[in-house]
Amino acid sequence: MPIRDEQSILLGSDLSLSYNNSQVLDCVSLDIKRGHITTLVGPNGSGKTSLIKILLEMIKPDSGYVYRQSGIRIGYVPQFVKIDPTLPLTVQRFVSLGGRNPLNEIEKILAEVGANYIKDKPFQSLSGGERRRVLLARALLNKPDLLVLDEPTAGVDVTGQIALYRLIADIRDRRGVGVLLVSHNLHLVMAATDHVICLNCHICCEGRPENISRAPEFLEIFGREATDALALYAHHHDHNHDDGVGVPLSAHEKNAG
User: Fold this and answer.
1) If both were cysteines, with which of 5, 8, 17, 227 could 25 make a disulfide (CB 3.0 to 4.6 Å apart)?
2) What is the CATH number of domain 8-78+145-250?
3) pLDDT digit string (tens) for 101-136?
4) Contacts of 13 (CB under 8 A, 6+ apart)
């Protein structure tokens, strides 16, 4: 069971779940802390999505419990959002759906994620990178203490993914929020996280990226990809790149689908 401290904002203890007599999660415990980026990785079918749904109280586990710090607000960005292509919906209108935030606040949030310049564009016409930034803006509107991001770079090319991960880190630094990421892309996410949890029905291993990348359980699941991820992590920490996190998308990212 994770140890709860003053930085803990979301805690899962001994969570188990099964579907049709098939074990999906087996005694999974995790502790999400304020100001930390925690990344959940694992192969397809490892239980990542089910775990997120339990933590968000969308489904109930067979056993175990979820603790939330009193009064915390959670911003959630799903992997996919389906919008009727015939629906006239601008970015500004999409972000405002279901809320009563004033226009200047919406524009401020869009500017924070580098997307204010597309506020009048139809949401359906956005590139992959633009769409992910707008979804992130919507999640930030209620001033969350925790961001839960399910594959936050889905549908984005490598250049756009790097920019998004740096934007997420910048938001964490500015707002002091906790971040729970779900990702399958080890190459980029290992350099953008504080704590990695490797899930395959149960927690195989967890810890700092530089330690997890050498864990036998991690290497067994991801093989060569894990070695490449470690190389990128080392490169990231050996070099200081100032890429302007939080600025509008580059021309290359604007054209990425």
Assistant:
1) 17
2) 3.40.50.300
3) 888 999 999 999 999 999 999 998 899 999 999 999
4) 1, 2, 29, 64, 65, 66, 67
Residue 148: beta bridge partners?
76, 180
Q: Transcribe the chain into DSSP letters.
A: -PPP-TTEEEEEEEEEEEETTEEEEEEEEEEEETT-EEEEE--TTSSHHHHHHHHTTSS--SEEEEEE-TT--EEEE-S-----TTS--BHHHHHHTT----HHHHHHHHHHTT-GGGTTSBGGG--HHHHHHHHHHHHHTT--SEEEEESTTTT--HHHHHHHHHHHHHHHHHH--EEEEE-S-HHHHGGG-SEEEEEESEEEEEE-HHHHTT-HHHHHHHTHHHHHHHHHHHHHHHS-----TTSPPPHHHHT--
CB 243 within 8 A of CB 166: yes
Domain ranges of the chain: 8-78+145-250
Residues in the chain, overall count: 257
Q: In what order do the strands lie in the sheet with 63-68?
A: 22-33, 8-19, 63-68
Task: Report the predicted TM-score, pTM, of the whole model to 2 decimal places.
Answer: 0.82
Amino acid at 88: P
* Residue 39 near residue 195, CB atoms below 8 Å: yes
Give 226-242 pLDDT, tens digit per residue. 555 554 444 444 444 34
